[in-house]
Amino acid sequence: MSQKKRESIAAILLLLALAAFLFIGGRILKPKQADFGSNWGPFLQEAEDSIDIMFFGSSLAYCDIVPAIIWENSGYSAYVLAGGEQPLAVTYYYLREALRHQSPQAVFVEISGLFYSQDTDYLKANIGNMPLTANRLHATFEAAPVSEWPALFLPFCAYHDRWDELTREDFRYALLGYEPDPLAGYTFLSTSTPTMGRVTREIDFEQENYEHNLSYLQQIADYATEHDVAVIFYIAPSYWLPEKKYLDLAAADARAIDNAIFYDMNDDFAALGIDDSIDFFDILHFNYRGAEKFSTYLGHLICTLELDTPTADTQLWQSRSEYFHQLAAEADAASANLSQ
Length: 340
Known about the structure:
By secondary structure, the chain is α/β, with parallel strands linked by helices. It has a domain at 39-116 and 183-339: SGNH hydrolase (Rossmann fold, 3-Layer(aba) Sandwich), CATH 3.40.50. Helices cover 48% and strands 8% of the residues. The chain has a 5-stranded parallel beta sheet with strand order 2-1-3-5-7. It has a two-stranded parallel sheet with strand order 4-6. Helix 4 (67-74) runs parallel beside helix 13 (288-303) and helix 4 (67-74) packs across helix 14.
């Protein structure tokens, strides 16, 4: 073998070793996410085509919706695949990627993403935790500013300062992968914050940004319909809502999409049976008590939709139900001890 050929092979091997180092190093260094949204790792551990209902959106989805409670009240399996302050361009690619793994009968999309800018503090997690597929590339190019591209393409460079923060879990998740989430995408919040009624949430409304997000809301409805999936858009119940004129605008535009159903859950807030003194984590999100009540409401609502027979694995979902109620009982006991 000639010297030149040996040098070429050595150079190729060096590049491959460098690429492997950057890839594996990036997986280890990137913060792991099994809760608080963007939880693609656990989601991909679900059995293929085992989820009947999927929920997308922002923290108003992953903090407020308990799939196990929905199953208790409807018989349908559910999963929450949302992300903090997620603009609808990212939600659209979440839907596309999710439908590569699951065939839900219906998807619920919480539409506060209409008001989010394309550059939020959670964008790196929202996109960076997606599988390395064409949908992640599209989400990067269409929903992330150019300044974020290096971090999304090379996590090693973005998180190189985490070496001294690494734990065993960083290595375990990076090398062995995630385990299924017993809460199916829900993030358990135990703290209670008494509320004093509704407060107006200030938003930086930009017409161009709103219309950009609205175009993706239409694409979400179109893509789901193409795959024979029912689409439900909704405004989540909350005590911290944007100004009425913006809510009315969002509701009107969501209702105008022909191939989707729209609900403003605040119209029926009293039916949730919320206790202002103990059911909120903060004025925007429910804690586990409020989430259980809202999810019970959703379970009953799902039963009114024209869906096929549930496909839920009863043994799996019974275990998930028991797990949630165990966490709730422990939180109740801790709360009772604090009040004594």
